[in-house]
Amino acid sequence: MIHLILAKHSDLGAIAEMARQIWNTHYVPMIGQAQVNYMLDKFYAQHSLAAQLQSGHRFYLIQQNDDTIGFLSVSSANNCDYFLHKLYIYSQKANTGAGTEVFERLIYLINPKSLTLTVNRKNFKSINFYFKNGFRIKSVEDFDIGNGYEMNDFVMERLFSDSPLTGNRQT
After folding, report:
1. pLDDT at 135 over 70
2. Is residue 171 part of a domain?
3. Which range of residues forms the domain containing residue 103?
């Protein structure tokens, strides 16, 4: 069973290390080691994660049994429309149903009207995973992230009809 545990500032070092491991396994073939290193330094260093937490991102550790298998982060300006900034699970847990269970838990927890994310256009495995979980491509975007690098992404969105879920939910 999957559990989402709200991360604290003291968990950011572990999240940074998970990101380093996951990105070096998954993204190097897609975007190259130099861009992976740049993006890890820019977006996943502990000080950057702390700034994201300070700006309203909620980080969750993804636990299966007693093992932490990944993390995610979301934010919302209105508690209805959410942006999924990060969803990373160790590759050995891929194709086990864990990712879909994470989405089910997250949706129950936040009860969104919409959930939007960006995904690299070459990340076919993840794109197919998002399609399988009800997302559709909303737009195609290129984001300049500095140092001569771009993120070439699909913006994907999943809309939710009014849900009977109410109240404070926990996983």
Report:
1. yes
2. no
3. 2-159
**3-class DSSP assignment, residue 93:** helix
Instruction: Give the total number of structural domains in the chain.
Output: 1
Tell whether the model's pLDDT for residue 167 goes beyond 90.
Answer: no
Is residue 161 predicted with pLDDT exceeding 90? no
Distance CA 84, CA 155 (A): 11
Contacts 24+ apart (CB under 8 A), 129-138: 129/99, 130/156, 132/100, 133/99, 133/100, 133/103, 133/158, 134/158
Six-digit token string for 24: 């070096």
Q: What span, in angstroms and rounded, lies between the C-alpha atoms of 85 and 95?
A: 21
Sheet containing strand 149-159, strands side by side: 2-6, 58-64, 67-76, 81-89, 114-120, 149-159, 136-146
